Amino acid sequence: MLRYALKRLVSLAISLVVASVVIFAMVEVVPGDPAAYMLGINATEETLNALRDQLGLNGTLLERYAGWVGGMLRGDFGTSYTYRTPVAEMIGERLWISLPLALFALTLSTAIAFPAGIWAASKRGSLVDTSVMGVTQLGVAIPNFWFAMLMVLVFAINLRWFNAGGFAGWDAGILPAMKSLTLPAIALALPQASILARVMRSSLLDTLGEDFIRTARAKGLSKRQALWRHALRNALIPVLTIIGLQFSFLMAGAIIIENVFFLPGLGRLVFQSISARDLIVVESVVMLLVFAVVMVNFAVDLAYAVVDPRLRVRA
Amino acid sequence: MSFLKLGAASALAMLVAGGALAKTDIVVAMQLEPPHLDPTSAAAGAIDSVLYSNVFEGLTRFGPDGSVNPGLAKSWDISDDGLTYTFHLNEGVTFHDGTAMDAEDVKFSLDRARAEDSANAQKALFSAIADVEVVDPATVKVMLSEPNGNFLFNMAWGDAVIVAPESIENIKQMPVGTGAFKFTNWVQGDNITLEKNGDYWGTPAKLDEVTFKFISDPTAAFAAVMAEDVDVFTGFPAPENLPQFEADPRFQVIVGNTEGETILSINNKMPPLDNVKVRKAIAHAIDRQAIIDGAMFGLGTPIGTHFAPHNPDYVDLTGNSAYDPEMSKALLAEAGFPDGFKTTLKLPPPSYARRGGEIIAAQLRAVGIETEITNLEWAQWLEQVFRGKDYGLTIVSHTEPFDIGIYARPDYYFQYDNKAFQDLIAELNKTTDPAMRTDMLHKAQTIISEDYVNGYLFQLATATVAKAGVTGLWKDAPTQATDLTAVYWAE
Fold first, then answer.
1. Hey, which of A180, B60, B89, B489 has its CA 20 to 30 A from A116?
2. What part of A 257-276 touches B (C-beta under 8 Å)?
3. Interface ipTM
């Protein structure tokens, strides 16, 4: 188990180094001068130069890369060009919205998908199964931003149960804050839950067809007992993979949903920073997201080994 | 329990207020969030939209109609040679941190803006200043190197507001001005709050609390207004939704003018666009009203030169470039392009450019001019088009007030180089006599119109959607500002 974990750690480190080089190169290659963007069309050349100096944009690429990575290793993410505040502080603030939102959505999608998938698998071919499959098909097909707008129309504009967007702030209390995250979380969770339910169902059906389930049934377990005691745990591997991928998607992919609900999260920060050429923010946020994704995958790898002892041995 | 308490408290507050039930707080939404809160070191209009006149004030200030009124300076004397301006400051003015605003602060602000290492985005506003001298705490003398007819106008810009040396260090996060509202808090990415300045030197604000919210997505903007999450949305980004608000008694729609001349900019140095006949052909190929209807849902006024139609010195020259595709084709043939030609059309993100661009491309195709459309982000546009001058045509709204002077800059991105025009503007800048200025401005508008420097399209309109009871909002936008100092809720 330890060797398995170590091996995973090495590949994790390599991914991070490669990612840092790629991110830096890509962001720096994008055309557009941050100083020119900030000062607009009436700026004089000397003003632009003065600002570039202030921002430290006049160094060579290698110097700036070294400065960036070195800073991050010390926990210093630099200072935003436009906002002029430390990037770490900005990320921290935004994370307090994006992380709870992702967790909320993940909880919702798991809470919907598990029962639905298990139920459908246990009643294969029945009306329940057909309707779960039908509904999830729809859930996968509907774009989540469109579903989000629809929810705003119904619950915010017509029924007035929710605000159309914005974030109440954690200072306002847990309930108002969670309330402002509810519609976005549902919008994010819907397609995820649909995919997860379908994976859960088919994985469970595969496992139910395996020899060891027949053996379990032959020993006298009811279908239900066999499913809960033996099949479910074995069916979890693909489900875990999907959950891992989904979490990364929820962290990084919430940009559109954050725009629809004008939530000041990480996704919107990246979006704004790209158009304002706030390169240091883009680099640091993307790097942080890569780090989160790599860490989640690492955790998923470890979870595989927990649910499936064969993986521990093979490694 | 806490709800009960809150209810009781507010009921009590209402009783105490003695029936004055009108709301005194307001939520104002806009699309763009300021990058930081120093109007004197960035071009971002969003900074002025939140802070101009509300938090920061200059020596002079823009009124709702674009006129230049006294601000922190209650009056001024101009020497006969036009070189010395003596400003008499209002007395008893304090900054929000309690320190006094006096002549030293004015000198500090002006010197800072024109300094070598200044990051002021409109440094040219201050270029005429030779020296600033403190006479006494309430009097400051500004010496110019040459007469400047625009000087008082220049001092009204958001980039020329008066700041204090004591608070300049943290101005980007914690702006300290002299205005009727004080800055209280900024939740980055979401909102900025201001509160009434109880010690304001002038007419106090009627509102107690103001929240600015930033909603960039047009669909979200529509939802936020409909759900009554916000009370006012300035610069409402979805003109297609306006009729719906107009029909709804809960809302009022205010459509006004901006200083934005929206033009099809032409690279005057790039063949064949360097030929005036070709530019004239382009001007006659464009159906302005079709663009206004198609791209702006009818909002906007056609223009025939680079000047705001609501300005008293405006001349209507739309006739010079009336829609006439046949004439356009004839002009192209005359210029040696009977089969038309091909050029680039580079479009920045705003919808006037993206939607307008598609329509213009179709209109130009009808006379034989093929355009290759490229969509650019602002940063790319600034680099490629504005600085690199690597373009044939582009569409952009020039939102700076009174900016006809850009045509006198041969290195500006249109690359229009006309000595006669440059001399005229130089002369204009020195002239302070109103009648002579009017005459010169007429001449200037006519020259660029007849030279077909650019395709003049329309004056950008601005739409504000507000709850029915909100009173005192500016209709027009003579500068990028959301002046809330006179806003209140009517019963």
1. A180
2. 259-262, 264-265, 268-269, 272, 275-276
3. 0.79
